[in-house]
Write a structure and sequence with these properties.
With 419 residues, this protein is mostly beta strands. Helix content is 6%, strand content 45%.
Length: 419
Protein backbone atom coordinates (compact mmCIF):
# COMPACT_ATOMS: atom_id res chain seq x y z
CA UNK A 1 0.00 0.00 0.00
CA UNK A 2 2.86 2.38 0.80
CA UNK A 3 4.36 1.77 -2.66
CA UNK A 4 1.00 2.42 -4.30
CA UNK A 5 0.50 5.62 -2.29
CA UNK A 6 3.98 6.81 -3.21
CA UNK A 7 3.31 6.06 -6.89
CA UNK A 8 0.07 8.05 -6.79
CA UNK A 9 1.88 10.94 -5.10
CA UNK A 10 4.56 10.97 -7.82
CA UNK A 11 1.91 10.72 -10.54
CA UNK A 12 -0.04 13.67 -9.14
CA UNK A 13 3.13 15.71 -8.88
CA UNK A 14 3.97 14.89 -12.50
CA UNK A 15 0.46 15.87 -13.63
CA UNK A 16 0.73 19.15 -11.73
CA UNK A 17 4.12 19.86 -13.29
CA UNK A 18 2.78 19.00 -16.75
CA UNK A 19 -0.15 21.35 -16.28
CA UNK A 20 2.24 24.16 -15.32
CA UNK A 21 4.29 23.53 -18.47
CA UNK A 22 1.16 23.43 -20.62
CA UNK A 23 -0.07 26.65 -19.01
CA UNK A 24 3.26 28.37 -19.58
CA UNK A 25 3.38 27.16 -23.18
CA UNK A 26 0.02 28.81 -23.88
CA UNK A 27 1.21 32.17 -22.56
CA UNK A 28 3.37 34.97 -23.96
CA UNK A 29 4.47 36.78 -20.79
CA UNK A 30 6.99 39.34 -22.11
CA UNK A 31 8.72 40.85 -25.15
CA UNK A 32 9.81 38.12 -27.60
CA UNK A 33 8.10 35.36 -25.62
CA UNK A 34 9.00 32.82 -22.97
CA UNK A 35 12.69 32.63 -23.88
CA UNK A 36 13.24 36.16 -25.24
CA UNK A 37 14.06 34.80 -28.68
CA UNK A 38 10.94 35.29 -30.84
CA UNK A 39 10.37 31.55 -31.06
CA UNK A 40 6.91 30.21 -30.23
CA UNK A 41 6.37 26.72 -28.88
CA UNK A 42 6.34 23.90 -31.40
CA UNK A 43 3.19 22.23 -30.08
CA UNK A 44 0.81 24.51 -31.98
CA UNK A 45 -0.43 25.10 -35.48
CA UNK A 46 -1.51 28.69 -36.20
CA UNK A 47 -3.12 29.39 -39.57
CA UNK A 48 -0.94 30.15 -42.58
CA UNK A 49 -3.63 31.92 -44.62
CA UNK A 50 -5.86 34.63 -43.16
CA UNK A 51 -7.19 38.17 -43.63
CA UNK A 52 -9.57 40.51 -41.82
CA UNK A 53 -12.48 38.20 -42.65
CA UNK A 54 -11.08 34.68 -42.83
CA UNK A 55 -9.86 32.88 -39.69
CA UNK A 56 -10.60 35.85 -37.44
CA UNK A 57 -11.68 34.57 -34.02
CA UNK A 58 -12.35 38.08 -32.74
CA UNK A 59 -11.30 41.68 -33.26
CA UNK A 60 -11.32 44.47 -30.70
CA UNK A 61 -11.07 48.22 -31.24
CA UNK A 62 -8.22 49.71 -29.22
CA UNK A 63 -8.45 53.38 -28.17
CA UNK A 64 -5.46 55.62 -28.84
CA UNK A 65 -2.20 54.55 -30.40
CA UNK A 66 0.70 52.31 -29.44
CA UNK A 67 3.38 50.06 -30.87
CA UNK A 68 3.74 47.68 -27.93
CA UNK A 69 2.87 44.02 -28.47
CA UNK A 70 0.20 42.24 -26.43
CA UNK A 71 1.28 40.24 -23.39
CA UNK A 72 -0.83 37.17 -22.73
CA UNK A 73 -1.26 35.27 -19.48
CA UNK A 74 -4.02 32.70 -18.96
CA UNK A 75 -7.37 34.45 -19.52
CA UNK A 76 -6.01 38.00 -19.88
CA UNK A 77 -4.24 40.18 -22.44
CA UNK A 78 -2.32 43.31 -21.44
CA UNK A 79 -1.61 46.16 -23.84
CA UNK A 80 -0.37 49.75 -23.52
CA UNK A 81 -1.84 52.67 -25.43
CA UNK A 82 -1.59 56.46 -25.56
CA UNK A 83 -4.08 59.16 -26.45
CA UNK A 84 -2.04 61.87 -28.13
CA UNK A 85 -4.88 64.43 -27.91
CA UNK A 86 -5.68 63.92 -24.22
CA UNK A 87 -2.00 63.18 -23.54
CA UNK A 88 -2.70 60.07 -21.49
CA UNK A 89 -0.80 56.79 -21.28
CA UNK A 90 -2.81 53.75 -20.27
CA UNK A 91 -2.60 50.05 -19.51
CA UNK A 92 -5.46 47.96 -20.88
CA UNK A 93 -6.59 44.51 -19.77
CA UNK A 94 -8.62 42.50 -22.29
CA UNK A 95 -10.35 39.14 -22.27
CA UNK A 96 -8.33 36.53 -24.11
CA UNK A 97 -11.51 34.74 -25.17
CA UNK A 98 -13.45 37.70 -26.55
CA UNK A 99 -11.10 40.69 -26.86
CA UNK A 100 -13.44 42.75 -24.68
CA UNK A 101 -11.69 45.42 -22.61
CA UNK A 102 -12.02 44.40 -18.95
CA UNK A 103 -10.37 47.48 -17.48
CA UNK A 104 -8.37 50.54 -18.50
CA UNK A 105 -6.01 52.36 -16.14
CA UNK A 106 -4.47 55.78 -16.69
CA UNK A 107 -0.79 55.50 -15.76
CA UNK A 108 0.32 59.03 -16.70
CA UNK A 109 -1.29 62.22 -17.92
CA UNK A 110 0.54 65.05 -19.67
CA UNK A 111 4.28 65.31 -19.99
CA UNK A 112 4.41 64.26 -23.66
CA UNK A 113 7.54 65.34 -25.58
CA UNK A 114 7.09 68.21 -28.02
CA UNK A 115 8.40 66.12 -30.89
CA UNK A 116 9.85 62.69 -31.65
CA UNK A 117 10.44 60.39 -34.60
CA UNK A 118 7.38 60.38 -36.86
CA UNK A 119 7.12 56.59 -36.52
CA UNK A 120 7.36 56.65 -32.73
CA UNK A 121 4.44 56.27 -30.34
CA UNK A 122 4.08 57.26 -26.69
CA UNK A 123 3.19 53.64 -25.83
CA UNK A 124 5.78 51.33 -27.37
CA UNK A 125 6.53 49.10 -24.38
CA UNK A 126 5.48 45.44 -24.36
CA UNK A 127 4.31 44.62 -20.81
CA UNK A 128 5.83 41.79 -18.79
CA UNK A 129 4.05 39.63 -16.24
CA UNK A 130 4.94 36.96 -13.72
CA UNK A 131 1.32 35.89 -13.34
CA UNK A 132 0.79 38.08 -10.29
CA UNK A 133 1.67 41.59 -11.43
CA UNK A 134 2.01 43.24 -14.83
CA UNK A 135 4.89 45.66 -15.42
CA UNK A 136 5.17 48.52 -17.91
CA UNK A 137 7.59 51.31 -18.90
CA UNK A 138 6.61 54.80 -20.04
CA UNK A 139 8.50 57.98 -20.86
CA UNK A 140 6.70 60.73 -18.95
CA UNK A 141 7.65 64.34 -18.34
CA UNK A 142 11.32 63.85 -19.23
CA UNK A 143 11.89 60.66 -17.25
CA UNK A 144 11.34 56.92 -17.58
CA UNK A 145 9.03 55.29 -15.05
CA UNK A 146 8.26 51.63 -14.42
CA UNK A 147 4.85 50.82 -12.93
CA UNK A 148 3.31 47.61 -11.60
CA UNK A 149 -0.39 46.71 -11.53
CA UNK A 150 -2.15 43.64 -10.25
CA UNK A 151 -4.53 41.68 -12.46
CA UNK A 152 -7.51 43.60 -11.09
CA UNK A 153 -6.08 46.94 -12.19
CA UNK A 154 -4.78 48.17 -8.85
CA UNK A 155 -1.53 50.13 -9.00
CA UNK A 156 0.97 48.45 -6.70
CA UNK A 157 4.07 50.59 -7.17
CA UNK A 158 5.81 53.07 -9.46
CA UNK A 159 9.54 53.73 -9.72
CA UNK A 160 11.52 56.41 -11.56
CA UNK A 161 14.38 54.80 -13.48
CA UNK A 162 16.22 57.70 -15.07
CA UNK A 163 15.88 61.17 -16.47
CA UNK A 164 15.59 60.93 -20.24
CA UNK A 165 16.73 63.27 -23.01
CA UNK A 166 14.62 62.43 -26.03
CA UNK A 167 16.37 61.71 -29.32
CA UNK A 168 14.05 59.50 -31.41
CA UNK A 169 11.61 58.08 -28.88
CA UNK A 170 11.37 55.52 -26.08
CA UNK A 171 10.48 51.88 -26.60
CA UNK A 172 12.22 49.52 -24.17
CA UNK A 173 10.32 46.71 -22.48
CA UNK A 174 10.93 45.14 -19.05
CA UNK A 175 12.24 41.59 -18.53
CA UNK A 176 11.55 39.28 -15.62
CA UNK A 177 14.34 37.37 -13.87
CA UNK A 178 13.63 35.43 -10.69
CA UNK A 179 12.66 38.00 -8.00
CA UNK A 180 13.70 40.94 -10.17
CA UNK A 181 12.36 43.08 -12.96
CA UNK A 182 15.09 44.28 -15.35
CA UNK A 183 14.55 47.65 -17.06
CA UNK A 184 16.68 49.96 -19.21
CA UNK A 185 16.65 53.63 -20.23
CA UNK A 186 19.67 54.51 -22.39
CA UNK A 187 19.66 58.14 -23.54
CA UNK A 188 21.85 61.13 -24.38
CA UNK A 189 21.77 62.32 -20.77
CA UNK A 190 23.22 59.07 -19.45
CA UNK A 191 20.70 56.38 -18.62
CA UNK A 192 20.72 53.18 -16.60
CA UNK A 193 19.98 49.48 -16.48
CA UNK A 194 18.28 48.52 -13.22
CA UNK A 195 17.21 45.42 -11.35
CA UNK A 196 14.04 46.15 -9.38
CA UNK A 197 12.34 44.14 -6.67
CA UNK A 198 9.24 42.85 -8.48
CA UNK A 199 7.09 43.15 -5.38
CA UNK A 200 7.70 46.77 -4.38
CA UNK A 201 9.80 48.41 -7.12
CA UNK A 202 12.86 48.96 -4.90
CA UNK A 203 16.05 49.40 -6.94
CA UNK A 204 18.24 46.44 -5.99
CA UNK A 205 21.05 47.30 -8.39
CA UNK A 206 21.74 50.02 -10.91
CA UNK A 207 24.35 50.28 -13.67
CA UNK A 208 24.92 53.71 -15.18
CA UNK A 209 25.22 53.87 -18.95
CA UNK A 210 27.06 56.09 -21.48
CA UNK A 211 25.49 59.37 -22.57
CA UNK A 212 24.27 58.01 -25.90
CA UNK A 213 20.84 57.30 -27.41
CA UNK A 214 19.81 53.65 -27.62
CA UNK A 215 16.52 51.73 -27.67
CA UNK A 216 17.30 48.06 -27.01
CA UNK A 217 15.43 46.06 -24.37
CA UNK A 218 17.23 43.89 -21.79
CA UNK A 219 17.40 40.20 -22.70
CA UNK A 220 18.37 37.27 -20.45
CA UNK A 221 19.87 34.10 -21.92
CA UNK A 222 21.51 31.01 -20.44
CA UNK A 223 24.94 30.79 -22.08
CA UNK A 224 27.21 27.90 -21.15
CA UNK A 225 25.19 27.14 -18.00
CA UNK A 226 25.30 30.76 -16.82
CA UNK A 227 22.44 33.26 -16.93
CA UNK A 228 23.52 36.50 -18.57
CA UNK A 229 21.75 39.79 -19.18
CA UNK A 230 22.94 40.62 -22.69
CA UNK A 231 22.60 44.18 -23.90
CA UNK A 232 23.62 45.95 -27.09
CA UNK A 233 23.98 49.60 -27.96
CA UNK A 234 26.01 52.71 -27.04
CA UNK A 235 28.82 51.13 -29.15
CA UNK A 236 29.05 48.24 -26.68
CA UNK A 237 27.97 44.66 -26.15
CA UNK A 238 27.53 44.18 -22.42
CA UNK A 239 26.95 41.10 -20.28
CA UNK A 240 25.74 41.51 -16.70
CA UNK A 241 24.80 39.14 -13.92
CA UNK A 242 21.01 39.67 -13.94
CA UNK A 243 20.77 39.05 -10.20
CA UNK A 244 23.43 41.55 -9.08
CA UNK A 245 24.21 43.81 -12.05
CA UNK A 246 27.89 42.79 -11.85
CA UNK A 247 29.64 43.16 -15.19
CA UNK A 248 30.60 39.76 -16.56
CA UNK A 249 32.17 41.08 -19.76
CA UNK A 250 31.93 43.99 -22.14
CA UNK A 251 33.32 44.68 -25.58
CA UNK A 252 32.99 47.08 -28.47
CA UNK A 253 31.20 45.67 -31.48
CA UNK A 254 27.77 47.22 -31.45
CA UNK A 255 26.58 50.39 -33.12
CA UNK A 256 25.54 53.44 -31.09
CA UNK A 257 21.80 53.12 -31.65
CA UNK A 258 20.08 49.73 -31.61
CA UNK A 259 16.38 48.99 -31.54
CA UNK A 260 16.48 45.24 -32.09
CA UNK A 261 17.05 42.69 -29.34
CA UNK A 262 20.19 40.58 -29.24
CA UNK A 263 20.02 36.83 -30.02
CA UNK A 264 22.37 33.90 -29.39
CA UNK A 265 23.15 30.34 -30.44
CA UNK A 266 24.94 29.62 -27.16
CA UNK A 267 28.40 30.22 -28.65
CA UNK A 268 27.95 33.66 -30.16
CA UNK A 269 25.81 36.69 -29.52
CA UNK A 270 24.45 38.35 -32.64
CA UNK A 271 24.12 42.10 -32.69
CA UNK A 272 22.38 44.35 -35.19
CA UNK A 273 22.03 48.10 -35.48
CA UNK A 274 21.53 50.96 -37.90
CA UNK A 275 23.28 54.09 -36.68
CA UNK A 276 25.85 55.37 -37.44
CA UNK A 277 26.29 52.36 -39.71
CA UNK A 278 24.35 49.30 -40.79
CA UNK A 279 25.64 46.35 -38.87
CA UNK A 280 25.10 42.63 -38.17
CA UNK A 281 27.86 40.79 -36.30
CA UNK A 282 28.66 37.53 -34.51
CA UNK A 283 30.69 38.00 -31.33
CA UNK A 284 32.02 35.12 -29.25
CA UNK A 285 30.01 34.78 -26.06
CA UNK A 286 33.07 33.95 -23.96
CA UNK A 287 34.00 37.52 -23.07
CA UNK A 288 36.97 37.57 -25.42
CA UNK A 289 35.38 40.24 -27.61
CA UNK A 290 36.33 38.35 -30.76
CA UNK A 291 34.21 39.33 -33.75
CA UNK A 292 33.77 36.12 -35.74
CA UNK A 293 32.04 37.73 -38.70
CA UNK A 294 30.35 40.97 -39.63
CA UNK A 295 28.38 42.48 -42.51
CA UNK A 296 26.63 45.76 -43.33
CA UNK A 297 23.02 44.54 -43.57
CA UNK A 298 20.41 46.91 -42.15
CA UNK A 299 18.54 45.01 -39.44
CA UNK A 300 18.14 48.09 -37.26
CA UNK A 301 14.59 47.89 -35.91
CA UNK A 302 13.54 44.26 -36.33
CA UNK A 303 15.00 41.49 -34.19
CA UNK A 304 16.50 38.32 -35.66
CA UNK A 305 15.80 34.62 -35.08
CA UNK A 306 18.34 31.82 -34.56
CA UNK A 307 17.40 28.27 -35.55
CA UNK A 308 19.60 25.19 -36.04
CA UNK A 309 22.81 26.95 -36.91
CA UNK A 310 21.26 29.69 -39.02
CA UNK A 311 20.03 33.25 -38.53
CA UNK A 312 16.82 34.41 -40.15
CA UNK A 313 16.04 38.10 -40.40
CA UNK A 314 13.63 40.52 -41.97
CA UNK A 315 15.56 43.65 -42.87
CA UNK A 316 14.16 47.13 -42.40
CA UNK A 317 13.48 47.32 -46.15
CA UNK A 318 11.38 44.13 -45.99
CA UNK A 319 13.88 41.71 -47.52
CA UNK A 320 14.19 38.28 -45.88
CA UNK A 321 17.72 37.08 -45.11
CA UNK A 322 19.38 33.89 -43.98
CA UNK A 323 22.99 33.49 -42.79
CA UNK A 324 25.02 30.60 -41.47
CA UNK A 325 25.41 31.58 -37.82
CA UNK A 326 28.98 30.28 -37.46
CA UNK A 327 30.48 31.63 -40.68
CA UNK A 328 28.18 34.48 -41.69
CA UNK A 329 27.75 32.94 -45.13
CA UNK A 330 24.76 34.43 -46.93
CA UNK A 331 22.43 31.52 -47.67
CA UNK A 332 19.86 33.65 -49.48
CA UNK A 333 18.35 37.11 -49.67
CA UNK A 334 14.90 37.57 -51.18
CA UNK A 335 12.16 40.17 -51.42
CA UNK A 336 9.41 39.46 -48.88
CA UNK A 337 7.54 42.59 -47.74
CA UNK A 338 7.82 46.37 -47.78
CA UNK A 339 9.40 48.51 -45.05
CA UNK A 340 9.19 46.64 -41.73
CA UNK A 341 9.33 47.59 -38.05
CA UNK A 342 7.76 44.50 -36.47
CA UNK A 343 10.00 41.54 -35.64
CA UNK A 344 9.33 38.08 -37.13
CA UNK A 345 8.09 35.14 -35.05
CA UNK A 346 9.03 31.49 -35.61
CA UNK A 347 6.65 28.55 -35.18
CA UNK A 348 8.03 25.11 -36.05
CA UNK A 349 9.51 25.63 -39.53
CA UNK A 350 7.46 28.71 -40.39
CA UNK A 351 8.30 32.38 -39.93
CA UNK A 352 5.54 34.97 -39.64
CA UNK A 353 6.46 38.52 -40.63
CA UNK A 354 4.34 41.65 -41.10
CA UNK A 355 5.39 44.98 -42.63
CA UNK A 356 4.34 48.55 -41.83
CA UNK A 357 1.49 48.36 -44.36
CA UNK A 358 -0.19 45.21 -43.00
CA UNK A 359 1.31 42.80 -45.53
CA UNK A 360 1.60 39.67 -43.39
CA UNK A 361 3.77 36.99 -44.99
CA UNK A 362 4.58 33.46 -43.91
CA UNK A 363 7.77 31.87 -45.22
CA UNK A 364 9.75 28.70 -44.64
CA UNK A 365 12.62 28.64 -42.14
CA UNK A 366 14.69 26.65 -44.60
CA UNK A 367 18.32 27.76 -45.04
CA UNK A 368 18.64 25.90 -48.33
CA UNK A 369 15.76 27.52 -50.18
CA UNK A 370 13.56 30.56 -49.74
CA UNK A 371 9.88 29.75 -50.04
CA UNK A 372 6.87 31.95 -49.37
CA UNK A 373 4.02 29.91 -47.92
CA UNK A 374 1.38 32.65 -47.89
CA UNK A 375 0.80 36.35 -48.48
CA UNK A 376 -1.87 37.85 -46.25
CA UNK A 377 -3.22 41.32 -45.43
CA UNK A 378 -4.13 42.65 -41.98
CA UNK A 379 -5.01 46.34 -41.64
CA UNK A 380 -3.36 49.37 -43.23
CA UNK A 381 -0.55 50.03 -40.75
CA UNK A 382 1.40 47.74 -38.40
CA UNK A 383 4.37 48.55 -36.17
CA UNK A 384 3.70 46.01 -33.43
CA UNK A 385 5.33 42.56 -33.40
CA UNK A 386 2.78 39.72 -33.52
CA UNK A 387 2.39 37.21 -30.70
CA UNK A 388 1.73 33.53 -31.35
CA UNK A 389 0.51 31.16 -28.66
CA UNK A 390 -2.15 28.47 -28.31
CA UNK A 391 -2.21 28.16 -32.14
CA UNK A 392 -3.46 31.73 -32.43
CA UNK A 393 -1.89 34.91 -33.77
CA UNK A 394 -2.49 38.16 -31.87
CA UNK A 395 -1.65 41.21 -33.93
CA UNK A 396 -2.15 44.94 -33.32
CA UNK A 397 -2.98 46.79 -36.54
CA UNK A 398 -4.49 50.11 -37.59
CA UNK A 399 -7.10 50.80 -40.24
CA UNK A 400 -7.94 54.11 -41.87
CA UNK A 401 -11.62 54.87 -42.47
CA UNK A 402 -12.35 58.31 -43.93
CA UNK A 403 -8.84 59.36 -42.91
CA UNK A 404 -9.53 58.40 -39.30
CA UNK A 405 -7.07 55.98 -37.73
CA UNK A 406 -8.44 53.13 -35.61
CA UNK A 407 -6.28 50.52 -33.93
CA UNK A 408 -7.58 46.96 -33.74
CA UNK A 409 -6.29 43.91 -31.91
CA UNK A 410 -6.96 40.76 -33.92
CA UNK A 411 -7.07 37.20 -32.67
CA UNK A 412 -6.43 34.92 -35.67
CA UNK A 413 -6.89 31.15 -35.53
CA UNK A 414 -8.02 28.12 -37.48
CA UNK A 415 -11.77 28.42 -37.11
CA UNK A 416 -12.28 24.74 -37.85
CA UNK A 417 -10.26 23.96 -34.71
CA UNK A 418 -12.39 26.22 -32.50
CA UNK A 419 -15.13 24.29 -30.74
Amino acid sequence: MKVKAQFIKILLAYIALTNVVISQNSNWPQWRGLKHNGIANNDQNPPVKFNTKDNIIWSSKIPGRGHGSPTIYESKIFLVTADETAKTQKLLCLSRDTGKIIWSKEVHKGGFPEKSNKKASQASCTPATDGKLVYINFLHNGAVYTTAYDFKGNKIWQQKISDYILHQGFSTSPAIYQSLLIVSADNKGGGAICGLNKSNGEIIWKVNRPKKPNYASPIIFKIKERDELIFQGCDLVTSLDPLTGKKLWETSGSTTECVSSIVTDGEHVFTSGGYPKNHVAAIKADGSGEVVWENISRVYVTSMIVKNGHIFAVMDNGNAMCWNSKTGKNMWRERLNRASSASPVLVKDRIYAVDEFGNFSVFSANPKKFKILAKNKIGDQVYSTPVICDSKIFIRAAEFVNDKRQEILYCIGNKKDIK
